[in-house]
Amino acid sequence: MDQVKVCIDKKPSATASGLGALPRSVWALGLVSLLMDTSSELIHSLLPVFLVTVLGASVGSVGVIERIAEATASRSKIFSGAISDYFGRRKPLVVVGYGLAALTKPLFPLASSISFVLLARFVDRVGKGIREAPRDALIADVTPEPLRGRAYGLRQALDTVGAFTGPLAALAAMAVFADNIRTVFWLAVLPGGLALAVLVWGVEEPQLPPLQPDGEPQSPIRLIDLRKLDLAFWMIVTVGAVLTLARFSEAFLLLRGQSVGLPAAYVPLILIVMNVVYAASAYPAGIFVDRLDRQVLLAVGCLVLIGSNFVLGLASRIWAVMAEVALWGLHMGLTQGLLSAMLAGAAPPALRGSAFGIFNLISGIMLLVASTIAGLLWDWYGASATFYAGAIVTTIGFAGMALTEFSRKVIAHTTTS
User: Could you tell me the pTM of the whole model?
Assistant: First the structure.
């Protein structure tokens, strides 16, 4: 149990500096995330509306596409993370992942059917799955432990700037091009290509010893290696799974706005509001991760998500949806960098890629389940039922964390250290 306490609650040295101390590669990865997310969110902010209004898909079909796409991504993550550990190289897989995402951008404006969109989302999510675990492990590899909260917070803040500049660009382009969604989608090609260029030329990785076994070649994924991941790691994975199950796809936030009367041309405002708050809170939350009690930050993040889901279920006006979407973004800012920093500390350096891959795989499975349930609840019982269910799941998970013997001992440790 002492090892578990140290992994979750270890606080860095008070001498750690701020933004200027972060490695160049962290900044470069943040810029890559900003550009690619601008490209992706320009498309995704309009994609549910495009599917429903242009291609004639049902809301249930949107849920099917989302869950297939995310399931594809989640299965790729564990393999890419383990392979990056096995060979001691992370950047080549990150380049492949972002490269696939860049190549899919022209497919969306060319789509003439739901199956074509599904193909584009499939390839895009394969790329996302390949890049995420090696990228997150690479950040931990190049960043001193006392700065990891800031490093993950910065990358996520820049990523999230892209997540609202994309919808802003979509909003402006919809006005310029008279709501022609296909034309707007073509604008996503340029930032996707720029992201790939920055990654190739701006990111350096340290030389790591490969995790290759002696003797005959073996599979990169070995149970004997995964047994080195201790209770602290699995507790963090469980927390992330519960939060993902309660959060489901952001497509349902877009559809919620439309359900209360938000015109299609203004639907991207929902992602703009959410991601402005996410971006503004991610780096300050990273500072808190490095300095404060992580259990308290996790509890606050859970309570914010409960409130957001509950009020989204009640909302009947546009302003109410926007206010609660802002809370959704605050929850993301409080928890995403926190979980990444905790994972980086809980996993042995030689298994960080595998650790992030497992975490992302399980989170992806939970997102698949969550999107399926959310779509069915929406179709059967209405929009409110979807968000009430999210609030209930988070409440149960929060209560479980608060009441377990493990959590009590960890909290006791942090309050006396």
Answer: 0.77
